[in-house]
Design a protein that fits this description.
mainly beta; 4-stranded antiparallel β-sheet; 32% strand; 8 strands; 3% helix; single chain; 1 helix
Length: 133
């Protein structure tokens, strides 16, 4: 059972990105807030987890966004892993967000999610694959 938390809105306003001004921002208190993980700025790019719903990606969680670190322009986004919802369960308790992000080398970004699964993102080819244990 997930416990209600009042820290969810704060999680949406970290890292200099005020998600509360996002028209899709609709905090839920049925699950804990997503883990607070810092954006990674590397070679003029800012790598960030998308915390809000995306109409064209049709899911919450599992989405990496890459911005120009100076202009803030979104350059590309990638569904790192699919997060399909079961229609008979409440949606927000099914959301699976990133737990950690770190570069392993110049082209490979490792992402671990709340379900303890790890993924390797190739930032050159903009592809993702699960790292099997």
């Amino acid at each position: 059972m997930l416990h209600k938390t009042m820290s969810w809105p704060r999680a949406y306003s970290v890292k200099g990105n005020t998600k509360m001004n996002d028209p899709q921002f609709n905090p839920s208190f049925d699950r804990n807030a997503p883990p607070e993980i810092p954006d990674i700025i590397r070679q003029g790019l800012r790598y960030s987890q998308r915390l809000t719903h995306s109409e064209n990606l049709h899911q919450m969680g599992g989405v990496l966004e890459v911005f120009n670190s100076k202009s803030g322009e979104l350059l590309w986004s990638l569904v790192v892993y699919e997060n399909k919802r079961h229609p008979d369960l409440e949606g927000d308790v099914q959301d699976i967000f990133f737990k950690s992000m770190k570069f392993l080398n110049d082209t490979e970004l490792e992402i671990e999610n709340e379900a303890e699964k790890k993924y390797l993102v190739n930032v050159t080819s903009k592809t993702s694959r699960e790292i099997l244990k």
